[in-house]
Amino acid sequence: MPGAILRLKDHHDALSERLHRGDFCAQRTGTGEEDYQAAAAAMGALAAQQPGYLGEDHARSADGFGITVSYWRDDASARAWRDNPEHARIRDQGRDKWYSAYSLHVARIERAYDWQK
Questions:
Q1: CA 77, CA 41: separation in Å to the nearest integer?
Q2: Which residues of 26-65 are buried (b: 16+ CB within 10 A; e: fewer)?
Q3: C-alpha dihedral, 108 to 16 to 111 to 27, nearest 10°
Q4: What are the phi and psi torsion angles at 105 (to 5°)?
Q5: Taking the alpha carbons of 85, 43, 61, 36 in that order, is the dihedral positive or negative?
Q6: What is the pLDDT of residues 66-90, one digit of tens each?
Q7: What is the mean pLDDT of the chain?
Q8: Phi, psi at residue 51, to the nearest 5°?
Q9: What pLDDT is recorded for position 112?
Q10: Which residue from 94, 57, 54, 59 is spatially nearest to 73, judged by alpha carbons?
Q11: Mean pLDDT of 85-108
């Protein structure tokens, strides 16, 4: 899941209202790679359509451990994504097929800094 680093300073108006983030940390099973990639792309596109969605960052190691951080304008937006029926359906598939374990941490962002060479 390649992508550019989300620069929160581009959302400075939302920072004054305390953005929320969801940190999804997961260990992949290594099975169903094509289906997983299709579902991940679909969920990325669907999340981007949700009110309050600001973007996401991803990283995955060679052994299948990955982290996705999604950024939301407020807690209500993050909860609405959690409760989205299509997201719930794919989440259940992930539990059944693609993940051996995962954790999700939701936090409020107090401040953000960027640096670029």
A1: 20
A2: bbbbeebeeebeebbeebeeebeeeebbbbbbeeeeeeee
A3: 40
A4: -125, 125
A5: positive
A6: 999 999 999 999 999 999 999 999 9
A7: 88
A8: -60, 135
A9: 78
A10: 54
A11: 96
Mean per-residue pLDDT for 1-21? Answer: 61
The tokens 């939301």 sit on which residue? 72
As given in the structure block, the two tokens for residue 18 are: 């305390």
Closest to 54 in 3D by CA, of 24, 15, 16? 15
User: Residues 43-53: pLDDT tens digits?
Assistant: 999 999 999 99
Per-residue three-class SS string for the chain: CCCCCCCHHHHHHHHCCCCEEEEEEEEECCCCHHHHHHHHHHHHHHHHCCCCEEEEEEEECCCCEEEEEEEECCHHHHHHHHHCHHHHHHHHHHHHHHEEEEEEEEEECCCCCCCCC
CA gap 69, 58 in Å, rounded: 6
